[in-house]
Design goal:
4-stranded antiparallel β-sheet, alpha+beta
Length: 102
Amino acid sequence: MRLVIFFDLPVDTALQRKSYRVFRKFLIKDGYLMMQESVYSKMVLDGAAADSAIIRLRKNRPSQGLVQVLKVTEKQFASIEDITGRHGGEGVVDGTDRVVVL
């Protein structure tokens, strides 16, 4: 299962820019990978792990702006078609090839 985060945050004032940076750093520290600017995704094992990740998102959400989360299955996520450009960055492994479930 994947969580896809979409966000649109104001960056007009210094305080808003700081809030944006803090939220983005939280996403990276929590294991999200950038798909596009303001679109991040994270692989989770199951619905319970997704719910826990959403609770952490709510605790770390910025005070202004729009943050949305979409839960999709791995099969749905794999059906993404790249129309222009490439998905993911160079050297980033973003798949289930090395996932070990204990």
